[in-house]
Design goal:
The protein is α+β, with helices and mostly antiparallel strands. It is built from 4 helices and 11 strands; from the N terminus they run ββαββαβββαβββαβ. Strand 3 and strand 4 form a beta hairpin.
Length: 236
């Protein structure tokens, strides 16, 4: 078992960008941890990766160690509260995963071929920590062309679903490939590059997708693949 130690880098300063026409705040922290070696070694030596059917993730996932989760919560909780004006006193619940893209394009389900949102719930945030070194695909932020939505909130969900269904009925299923650029249904308005030890955070309502290059990014090996850690943080 890996003896895990992770500490955040006190010199890593958050950058906050207001993206898209809806000016959604997105947080980027480069060189987030002093050393990611232990969390990568844990993924390689101790984590048990398996398909994640519950969230339609196109690959395999595993649980990260509790020490890592605790450090993310310690570092990100106050920052999220400040950036997104989260009311004081709300309890924080976290779901967390190591993730590796492993599904070839021809086997993608329809929902895996288009951008997605993680939650319509207020005060729900997605956090991604890019881990392995390598020239991997980053994260794209998308606008839904029929509605103009960049965020799918509870009050927009029905309109978004109806417009999406109408588009698919008129045009058919999207091609069996990862979305990596603007098409007739979605507009890529922001691309966040993959950088080892970069951490990004944004509201779960924001439409997004990994910008997956099949020749580069599909690899279920935690030692060499596009290894990320994902934390879904809800205040309620």
């Amino acid at each position: 078992m890996v003896q895990l130690s992770i500490r955040t880098n006190p010199k890593s300063s958050p950058q906050v960008f207001a993206v898209g026409e809806e000016r959604t705040p997105v947080i980027i922290l480069d060189d987030f941890a002093l050393d990611t070696g232990d969390v990568i070694r844990y993924a390689v030596q101790s984590a048990s990766f398996a398909p994640d059917e519950a969230y339609v993730y196109p690959g395999v996932r595993a649980k990260p160690p509790k020490e890592y989760i605790q450090e993310i919560v310690r570092a990100l909780g106050p920052l999220l509260g400040q950036v997104y004006s989260i009311p004081a006193g709300l309890a924080l619940a976290v779901n967390s995963y190591y993730s590796l893209v492993a599904t070839p394009p021809e086997k993608l389900q329809v929902l895996q071929r288009v951008p997605h949102f993680d939650s319509t719930t207020r005060y729900f945030y997605a956090v991604t920590h890019y881990l392995n070194p390598g020239d991997f695909g980053g994260t794209g932020l998308f606008r839904h062309t029929p509605t103009g939505f960049e965020n799918v909130t509870e009050d927009r969900l029905q309109a978004y679903a109806q417009a999406g269904d109408s588009y698919l009925r008129a045009h058919g299923d999207p091609p069996a490939e990862y979305i990596r650029a603007t098409d007739d249904h979605y507009e890529l308005f922001e691309a966040i590059d993959y950088r080892p030890n970069r951490l990004i955070a944004y509201p779960g309502s924001l439409l997004h997708s990994g910008l997956i290059d099949p020749d580069r990014d599909i690899n279920p090996d935690p030692a060499t693949g596009r290894l990320t850690a994902n934390f879904f943080m809800r205040f309620r």
